[in-house]
Amino acid sequence: xxxxxxxxxxxxxxxxxxxxxxxxxxxxxxxxxxxxxxxxxxxxxxxxxxxxxxxxxxxxxxxxxxxxxxxxxxxxxxxxxxxxxxxxxxxxxxxxxxxxxxx
Length: 103
Description:
The protein has helices at residues 8-23, 28-35, 39-49, 54-73, 79-94. It has 103 residues and is mostly helical. The chain folds into 2 domains: 8-49; 54-94, no CATH class. The radius of gyration is 16 Å and the shape is elongated. The protein starts with 7 loop residues before the first helix and ends in a 9-residue tail after the last helix.
């Protein structure tokens, strides 16, 4: 099967379509099939992008770059928030680095 690459905006739109289909009484498997993805992908996307708006998804790569920069510098100004950012970085790395944790 050919792997399709979806942008975060496309993923959020597909999740919205799935939610509409689910509210009409379809099962998750049926709704996923109608929007052209498998059920596992639906659950993964919902975990990563659920509740996000398109504007937030567009801003997310900048946030990840900024966090990585602050962690690299280890600035004393961000000594407190540094631990929570390291946890966020660990989540990104454990998912393959490019996947995003929703805020």
